[in-house]
Amino acid sequence: MSELKTRWDIFCTVVDNYGDIGVTWRLARQLVAEHSLAVRLWVDDLRAFERMCPEIDVHVAQQWQQGVEVRRWPAEWLPTEAADVVIAAFACQLPATYMEAMAERKQPPLWMNLDYLSAEDWVMGCHGLPSVKYKHVQKYFFFPGFQKGTGGLLRESGLLERRRQFQQDPQAQRTFLQGLGVDRAPDAQLISLFAYENAGLASWLDALASDSMSTHVLVPEGRVLGDVERWLGVNDLQAGALHVREAVTVQVLPFVRQDQYDQLLWCCDFNAVRGEDSFVRAQWAGRPLLWHIYQQEEDVHLDKLEAFLALYVKGLSAPASEAISGLWRAWNAGAKMTDHWHSTRKHWPELEKHAETWCLEQALQADLATALVQFYGNWI
């Protein structure tokens, strides 16, 4: 079957505001742009999607955005012909009538569960294996990951070259930041902060405020703003707000498109990110980072954190490894950050070099969209 005629359906239920739709929107666009596929993206919450793609009309059930057919996932499902490839993102449950439509096809579709990103060892053993069946339609596990034997990471063609050119062009960076209302002082380190609520933030901001180095913290609108407000002693922070305390400047940014967020990460010296989508994009930025992992019951998320750290710190000296690992663990425990931040700063040149090395190593793997297309090609 020709790729040009292949129809793909991607189903997304919005659980964590932006993470789920962030991943599936990137994937859908790349499948269209780079693999010439016909893609329908089914989303149950178009308002969350609108923050990422302002052109979305939340009142329209069917529309096209950047070559992707965007469909509202209705509460009452109407009869719809099943696609050649069906992706249930993050184990979302497909509509019963759509599953019947899959079973009624003369040629059953390839049905995949695109799972959450994890560096745990068991992922390699499960990736690509058959899962449950619905009648005669077989579902398969598909795991993104950081090692061979997984589905890789989302990475558009030419991304790292565009990033390299941007990071080598100070004027392009200044122009971009000025477009967001950011006036960066020449001697200030730039930090982006995108996180869930975190009790450890106040101690980190205290450390930045009392530092000999100036720091400009850029905070995209999101859940961590409440903690920022408490530290500043203000209420109702909005995009554009700017506050200075000693050596630290805190500025709130509007929620931006994905490509603009990439450029924000490329501009910054250090990126604090959360969840899955921004976590991967920060790795492609080639800069030191801090991950706030999505909290799960019984702290199972901490196993995922440790699994990633075990991979990430390979190649670092023992002191640098201990410093960055300590910082990540403290952040994810909501613990005091001061000493861990100071330790991390001591190893800054090594951590900067390592972040770029890690990025280039990950880029040696096939990207997630290509891996999915290859899996389908092998399946048929």
Automatic annotation (TrEMBL):
InterPro entries: EarP. It comes from Pseudomonas reinekei. It comes from the Bacteria. The keyword Oxidoreductase does not apply. It catalyses: dTDP-beta-L-rhamnose + L-arginyl-[protein] = N(omega)-(alpha-L-rhamnosyl)-L-arginyl-[protein] + dTDP + H(+). The gene is earP. Belongs to the glycosyltransferase 104 family. Keywords: Elongation factor, Glycosyltransferase, Protein biosynthesis, Transferase. The keyword Protein biosynthesis applies. Signal peptide: none annotated. Pfam families: EarP (PF10093). GO terms for molecular function: protein-arginine rhamnosyltransferase activity; translation elongation factor activity. Protein-arginine rhamnosyltransferase that catalyzes the transfer of a single rhamnose to elongation factor P (EF-P) on 'Lys-32', a modification required for EF-P-dependent rescue of polyproline stalled ribosomes. This is Protein-arginine rhamnosyltransferase.
